Amino acid sequence: MGKPEHIHLLDEATINQIAAGEVIERPASVVKELIDNSLDAGASDIRVEIEGAGSKSITVIDDGSGIGRDEAPVAFTKHSTSKIESKDDLHRIITLGFRGEALSSIAAVSRVELISRTADCLSAVKVRVEGGSVGETTDTGSSVGTRVEVRDLFYNTPARRKYLKSKRTELSHITDTVTRQALGNPEVSFTLLNEGKVVLRCGKGELFDRMVQVLGADVARQLIPLEYKDDLLSLWGYISKPGYYRSNREMNYFFVNGRNISSPAISNAVRLGYYTMLPKGRYPAAVLNVKINLEEVDVNVHPAKRYVRLSRENEIMDGISSAVEQALKQEKLVPEAKPSP
Ligand code: ADP
Ligand code: MG
């Protein structure tokens, strides 16, 4: 293999593909980023349609605020966002997006068509982007909101495309993604269609209704409510009774300030609250919303925003463990300590 003679700057297209690889790992990442955008746009109804387990097409349709005519092409350039202005804003992120990377990353590795209309415009704007190059902007008809269609994901990155798993596996990642977003946003209705067939459909409601809809009534029956507040955090959601557990953390749904994250620390803190009530290596089901002061949470630690860093982690985890303990006690699932004679 030849070694380049000189150090040189990579061309724009190569840079974009490298960057895209960090954010967009598989079809489910596209679904996640597009739903995040719909939620940030204040959508109350989100519809996801996929074909070929996402590798043929992924379409997300929302009834959110929409994108203005002039802004639509800009949305596809790298690091362009309407959600923050300067680095100071990084310490008080209230939106799911803020890096301005999703649309540009998706568009670098697929063929995208965006149709969007804001309330103050009679017509919608339509933009096509292929392999990162933005085409002409045209007018079209549509209701207020945004529709993003992503076709032929990874068509220009054969290595990535080859790495895609079976349709079944990719579909289960997509379903898991939509399930997570749906659990975090019960006030928004969600529909997921695969090859025109309904995989998931849930109307707006309370968190408990949402759990019945996406996790099933059998699971929901095993859950008890939890509510907790101290100086540092507030918590609300549901945890499973001690008799119900899994061999992995797949039923751990955690939302920190509305953002679904993966957190072994929170998972362990929840487990600790059960003391010896769970067998070794077993995990409870938990759907937990954690609200912490924005300054205590660093959300800018992972390109796909899957993790956050908590500045007072130990105290927060202690709070979570005692919240779980209290919830189990309230349900009389923990024997009260006998008063000493
Ligand atoms: P980010 O979400 O980090 O800002 P994205 O690349 O995901 O970056 O999106 C770029 C911009 O495009 C957003 O900041 C937003 O202004 C606009 N946008 C994207 N999707 C939508 C949508 N569904 N509804 C309204 N605006 C959107
Ligand atoms: Mg985004």
Biggest sheet overview: 8 strands, mixed
- What is the number of domains? 2
Side-by-side strand order of the widest sheet: 5-4-3-6-2-1-7-8
Order of helices and strands: HHEEHHEEEEHHEEHHEEEEHEEEH
- Stretches where pLDDT is under 50 for at least 5 consecutive residues are none
CATH architecture of the largest domain: 2-Layer Sandwich
β-sheet strand percentage: 25-35%
Distance between the termini: 81 Å
Instruction: Kindly provide the radius of gyration, computed on alpha-carbon positions and rounded to a whole number of angstroms.
Output: 22 Å
Number of strands: 15
The top-level CATH class of the largest domain is: Alpha Beta
Bound molecules: adenosine-5'-diphosphate, magnesium ion
In terms of quaternary structure, the protein is single chain
CATH superfamily of the largest domain: Histidine kinase-like ATPase, C-terminal domain
Number of helices: 10
CATH fold-level label of the largest domain: Heat Shock Protein 90
The share of residues in helices is 25-40%
Structural class: alpha+beta
GO molecular function: ATP binding; ATP hydrolysis activity; ATP-dependent DNA damage sensor activity; endonuclease activity; mismatched DNA binding
Keywords: DNA damage, DNA repair, Endonuclease, Hydrolase, Nuclease
Family: Belongs to the DNA mismatch repair MutL/HexB family.
Organism: Methanohalophilus halophilus
